[in-house]
Specification:
This protein is of the alpha+beta class. 27% of the residues lie in helices and 23% in strands. It comes from Streptomyces shaanxiensis.
Length: 265
């Protein structure tokens, strides 16, 4: 018997419970079906919270899975505001994000390098992997303690590419077509900066930025760009998506953005 099957069945049951709760809330509000999913998910989740079921581990997993799927189809952004048992929130700045898998995923390393290269997911997985267990801190305030990430040190990919003289920064692009980030070259070479392929001891899901994302352990989570597709070595730091909207470029946890959170690394 497939050992993962019982968990899958449990998650299906949880999703069915969430849907049932949504329908009940819709009836109570006298609303017809077909309203934007953000509002329906909000009502359903509040109903589940009142029942107190989100504290059970299996239900947490199911609710996280449901919210991740819902947020991918939610143009309102309301699902990003919802709490869940795992502590994470699901954010995207694009209206939709294409899905990549082991066959279609590619990661390009280029810019001021001697040896530009494009990696497949299999090639990234074949490189030495490093595991970090750190708290994840979002600049909006939520924190998830002791979260394992595994992947390839960014410094390894930079060394393999051969960074040219005069380079001072690294720019990251994503296959959502919108998000960007940057680090100084010194920051990018830190041992706690990964191209992450796994999170919480399983392959990165699409909702969490898979198949590969950036993970910058000592900085606020907006620096850990999801759906990573490009690593470009540049002369200077180019402000990323959120820096252009007022966030700090150097986003050290507890020492930036006007916050005093405990460091994560």
């Amino acid at each position: 018997m497939n050992p993962e099957q019982p968990e899958a069945e449990d998650e299906e049951q949880v999703e069915a419970q969430v849907e049932a709760q949504i329908e009940e809330q819709d009836r109570e509000q006298g609303e017809a079906k077909g309203k934007p999913i953000g509002r329906r998910v909000l009502l359903g989740t509040l109903g589940l919270g009142a029942l107190g079921v989100v504290t059970a581990p299996t239900l947490q997993r199911g609710l996280e899975s449901f919210l991740a799927s819902a947020s991918d189809k939610d143009p309102t952004g309301l699902t990003g505001l919802l709490p869940n048992g795992g502590g994470f929130r699901y954010y995207s700045v694009a209206s939709s994000v294409p899905r990549k898998n082991a066959t279609t995923y590619r990661l390009t390393v280029d810019g001021l390098v001697e040896h530009p290269r494009t990696y497949t997911l299999a090639e990234l997985r074949a490189l030495p992997q490093n595991r970090l267990v750190r708290d994840v801190q979002c600049v909006t305030g939520w924190r998830v303690p002791g979260t394992p990430f595994e992947g390839v040190r960014l410094s390894r990919l930079l060394d393999a590419a051969g960074v040219r003289q005069g380079a001072g920064a690294v720019r990251f692009t994503c296959f959502d077509g919108t998000y960007t980030e940057s680090l100084t070259l010194d920051q990018a070479r830190r041992a706690d900066v990964l191209v992450a392929l796994r999170m919480q001891d399983k392959d990165l899901s699409h909702a969490h930025g898979g198949p590969a994302r950036l993970y910058v352990a000592p900085m606020y989570f907006y620096k850990s760009a999801k759906w990573l597709s490009g690593i470009t070595v540049t002369e200077d730091v180019q402000p990323g998506y959120w820096e252009e909207r007022g966030y700090d470029v150097d986003a050290w946890v507890g020492r930036s953005n006007g916050r005093d959170d405990e460091p994560t690394s």
